[in-house]
Amino acid sequence: MNSLNTTTRAALERHDRPHSILIVDDEPRMRTSLRILLQESGREILESKSGGEAIATLKTKQIDLVLLDIILPDISGLDVLEWITSRGDALPASVIIVSVDDNIDSAIHALRNGASEYIRKPYEPEVIQHKVRNILYRRHLERDHVLITSRLQHSEQLHRFLVESSPDLIFTLDNSGCFTFINSRIESLLGFSREELIGSCYDTIVLAEDLKTAQHPFTERRRGNRATTNLEIRLKCTPSHYRNFENHHIVVMMSSTGIYGEHDNDFPLARCFSGTYGVARDITDRKIAEETIAFQAFHDHLTHLPNQRLFKDRLEMAITHSKRHGGMVGVMFIDLDRFKIVNDTHGHAAGDELLKNVAHRLRHCIRAVDTLARKGGDEFTVLLPDLMRAEDAALIAEKIMHELGIPFSVAGQKFHVSASIGIAIVPRDGESIDTLLKSADIAMYRVKASGKNGYRFFTPDMNICYTKRISLENELRQAIPNSEFELFYQPQVSINGASIIGLEALIRWRHPTHGLLNPGDFIELAEETGMIGTITDWVLAEACRQLAHWRSMGFSDLRIAVNVSPKEFERDDMVEQLSRFMSTFQLPPDSLEVEITEKILLRDTPSVINKMKTLRERGIRISIDDFGTCYSSLNYLRQFPISTIKIDQSFVRDLSEEHRISPIIQAIIGIANGFGLHLLAEGVETHCQMQTLHALGCNEMQGYLFSRPAPAEQIEQMLCHTISHTTLQSPDFLTHPQLLSPLLTQGLQERPLA
Length: 754
Known about the structure:
The protein is α/β, with parallel strands linked by helices. It folds into four domains: 6-158, 3-Layer(aba) Sandwich (Rossmann fold); 166-262 and 271-289, Beta-Lactamase; 301-468, Reverse transcriptase/Diguanylate cyclase domain (Alpha-Beta Plaits, 2-Layer Sandwich); 482-740, EAL domain (TIM Barrel, Alpha-Beta Barrel), CATH 3.20.20.450. It is built from 27 helices and 27 strands. An eight-stranded mixed β-barrel has the order 18-19-21-22-23-24-25-26, surrounded by five helices. A five-stranded parallel beta sheet has the order 2-1-3-4-5, sandwiched between helices. The chain has a five-stranded antiparallel beta sheet with strand order 7-6-10-9-8, sandwiched between helices. Helix 22 (634-639) links the parallel strand 23 and strand 24. Helix 3 packs parallel to helix 4 (77-86), helix 12 runs antiparallel to helix 13 and helix 18 packs parallel to helix 19 (574-584).
């Protein structure tokens, strides 16, 4: 269409318009007679009396036929004819010369310059009518031809544009499978040039492993619904187009159809197969995405091990195979024993790296037919199909323990990892997936409870303990709604002041079946199940309520200490919750002391330090419980805002009449004095221990010598009794500490309940 001029395009756009005839003659009567002679329906007759006027009309209007006189007043009719033919229109106006000039040279000149006919005046009306009719009919055919040709050109240009601009690979092959055409996409897609492929066989670009599959679509003879559609084929790339070192090809979705030529002369009803036409779309990125999604759906993103979904599927197949063909199937549940230390000390990035290294070692401990999967966190599972004996699983477990016994490198330091492994066997320990995993899990927890770093096979008696544990967990969840928790209090006394200065709140669970349970029976379970936060909130609320009651009775200097789990410092609202309780019961901040263990200091994270600093800024006291039994780093005392340290009862217990000297206690007392900290000794049970500690410089104590933990009612009686003996002097108190409480009548040598 771009090659056609404006006039021709206009003509094609008005293909059904009337034929236009221009009569050019300087004699008005001649123009009128021709108009009357040629006037018919479907014709438009125009007139011009000079050559210049005719040219002006031809410039502005599409004329089909010009009846042109040679002798004109301004220019010759032959000049007008030359102007018409020189324009280069795809469909110029047809010209009939109508003139009195009988010179043969004029006629020859006119015909050579494009005139269709030469008629001399005077003319026969029938002759001119016949010639005009013939020329207009031929003109109609020419217009149709030009229109069809234009449409074909436009279609070809559009087709070529679509083919060359297509993101797909488009090609044709001859009947021997050689390329006869291929679009430019081949260069950007595979790196081949079109010139080097034209005439080459299709196997030039097909990956060797796919040649057999590609043979049929690249020589496709079928057409219609039976032709090749959406077949995946891998095509080779030139080295310059390798996407990476591992991927030297692309994946295409190919469709093809047969091409047939004219009828065979020998077989008039058959068409000759001339080749194949094909389209190939690059789906490499889609295939990679699909494979990635499929991999992620069945594998752990960190270690790239199978996840539990894939593990259970393979376990189900192994169980089915075992039922049909006999044999045993082993299931291992592996839990790393000391992984949490890495996360808490070095961060999650170091923990993730350790998990990947552990997974790498575990892979080398199992057979090719086994499946190692990551369950989550630091837990792994192993499927051991086709075992001849149950003991074979023990060999693999020992291999795992030996491999993990080799130190890992964590943050540039050697780190020893151990594992607790539980093993369940099909069919003796169950034949369902859930039963086997539960049995292996129970066996693993038995290893944990027995000191970790080992393996055990599941036995039926373990299930009883597991059932009890689940039952206890369910009952623990109902303890608060059923008001089964109670707080006991153990006094903290000042030897110099001969008075009770504080109380440690100790939780008890009055279980409806098992009776009164100490924290050791359920606190660990509460931490594992995530219930410790709810329990701690209850303890804080109850302790603050009770302290407010006692302070309202006149014990205004009394303070209370509450043990807080390290997990509580992971809560974002921990500080606000404590402050809320203090505000609710209108208690001064320094009347509450939060007792923490040294383990929380190991976390050494900015969030823990910030929470502790905020508590101290708000006046709440912080003490380290059981000081000296764990790490006792002086750097912790310098970095963390500690107000009190408590000497553990294990050191106090070593004091006796024969051994009144304790270098450890002396060191702890010196540390407390050096850092300006309060000091309190726990577990004081004898007069000797009390007197020795006081002599060494420790004034505040708690223990069975003064009172065992008791309910609030008994503590209240003790507080009232203390007021009535305020005249006691320290020497008398050191000699008769039982005067502090009439409740001490026996059992001074008993071990503490908490």
